[in-house]
Amino acid sequence: MARDDTDPLAAAEAAVRSATRPAAAPRVNPGERLLRTALKLRHLNLLVALDDHRKLHRAAASLNLSQPAASKMLGEIEKIVGVPLFDRLARGVEPTWYGEALIRRTRTVLAELGQAGEEIAALRAGEGGTVSVGTVMAPAVDIVVPALESVRRRLPRLQVTVQVDTSDVLSERLLASRLDFIIGRIPAGMNPAPFDYREVGEEEACLMVRESHPLAALPLVRPEDLHDRDWVLQPRGSLLRRSVEAMLRRHGVPPPVRVVNSASLLMTMSMAAKTDAVAPIALKVGELLLSAGRFKLLPLTERITVEPYGLIKARGRPLSPAAEVLYRAVEDELFPA
Questions:
Q1: How confident is the model over 270-295, as pLDDT tens digits?
Q2: What is the CATH number of domain 30-108?
Q3: C-alpha span between 264 and 165 (Å, rounded)
Q4: Does the structural domain 125-200+309-334 have CATH classification 3.30.390.50?
Q5: Which residues contact 2 (CB under 8 A, 6 or more apart)?
Q6: For 203-307, CATH number?
Q7: Distance between CA 78 and CA 38 in Å, rounded?
Q8: For 38-65, what is each residue's pLDDT tens digit?
Q9: What is the dihedral of CA 191, 195, 196, 200, to 10 degrees?
Q10: Exposed/middle/buried for residue 316 (C-beta within 10 Å: 0-12, 13-18, 19+)
């Protein structure tokens, strides 16, 4: 990957080890002015609590407030913003469209503030800071692990949280600022505008069974051989499941009927190890599990591929120095020079 004269990775690592220069004050636009001059932190906490609990008395209790005090504070917020943020219903409160917009941004602000203290303390102590990254299954094995190994040699005290999940879950958590960046897909139907996406390539899948499975002895497994089998599959609508069903459909094989639905890798492995269930998983994960024994990957006559995934971060939201270091290491694994 081409580098500028000023190496961004070196700059990020320097920032992680020592926070010596205060950041320049950003220009204030009208939206930022609202948050800076009127809304207080206690207001933001109440908005999130109301969204979480959907009942005024429960939200108030979670913040150690009386219900009248919380009601008064909500009135203050709506006066500041100038629009109704919640509908008062007999069963509780529901955010309006205005409320949903403000709550979504509020969660981002609070998430950043929640990490700021730990981040600053870690930077001052030279401990490396904290990073949260999300990934679909295959890149977790052959991309994230070697990137982590590379980074931790330079920053051994870097605190990293890795979430392995489906792209729809990861995308929502990225937008909510619960993840710094992800490796996955922008789900169909989700607006791509908030994302900065760099495509990597398609993902290959395989079918894993236990060594004593009736299909394990076949030299080649045709789609027709998979008819009327037990399966453990990701939930209906997931990309991997749709890819398997499409492969079967191309050969006139009905979709699986005897199915256990689970997004859990542990449950998938357990079902494959102890029953005759066929388990579609990412090829890289399947190859890793082969080393533990007890499993076999079926030699298919037709490859199963899942649509391309990519490296994704939130557009317009800068990465912290610690997240920048790991992001660059993942980039180097995904897009080697």
A1: 999 999 999 999 998 898 888 777 89
A2: 1.10.10.10
A3: 9
A4: no
A5: 337
A6: 3.40.190.290
A7: 11
A8: 778 889 999 999 999 999 999 999 999 9
A9: -70
A10: exposed
